[in-house]
C-alpha cells in the first residue's frame, strides 16, 4: 500500500485491509509529511511485480498519477477506481492487480465498497478475457527498454 500523503483515508484503508486479514506494508510518509507519488507508487508496484506482494493499493491526490506510475512497472495492471462497479470490472475483465484510489474524491465509505468489490471479484477465466489480458502482456514485451 502506498500514498504520497498519510491522510485519514490512508489510515482507514490500512485498517480495513488489516481487518480483512491482509498483511499491510505501508510505503509512504508519516502524518503531516509528503512524498513523491511516483516513488512510493513504484515501490508498491515493484513489490507486486516481484511476487513479494499479491496486490497493492496506491493512492495520490487524484489517483491518476499513482495509476500511471504503477502501470509503468512490467506485469502491473493498475486500475483507478472511483466506485465498486469499476473495481468489479477491473478485476473481472482486466485482471487488475493494483488498485488506485483518489485521496481527494474517495470517501471512507466508498473506499470500503470498492475494497469489498475488489476482493470479492475473481479474475474471469473465459477465453475472450484471457486473450485480452494476454494482448496486454504482449504489448509490455514489445516496449523499448
Offer a concise description of the structure.
This protein has 6 helices and 4 strands.
CATH fold group: Ribose 5-phosphate Isomerase B, Chain: A
Structural class assignment: alpha/beta
CATH superfamily: Sugar-phosphate isomerase, RpiB/LacA/LacB
Largest sheet: 4 strands, parallel
Proportion of helical residues: 40-55%
**Beta-strand residue fraction:** 5-15%
What does the radius of gyration come to? 15 Å
Calculate the terminal CA-CA distance, rounded to whole Å.
Answer: 26 Å
Summarize the structure in words:
The chain is of the alpha/beta class. It has a single domain, classed as Ribose 5-phosphate Isomerase B, Chain: A, CATH 3.40.1400.10. Helices cover 50% and strands 10% of the residues. It has helices spanning 8-19, 37-50, 64-70, 84-94, 108-120, 127-141; strands spanning 2-3, 56-60, 78-80, 98-102. Strands 1-2-4-3 form a 4-stranded parallel β-sheet, sandwiched between helices. Helix 4 links the parallel strand 3 (78-80) and strand 4 (98-102). The chain is globular. The two termini are 26 Å apart. The model has no long low-confidence stretch (mean pLDDT 96).
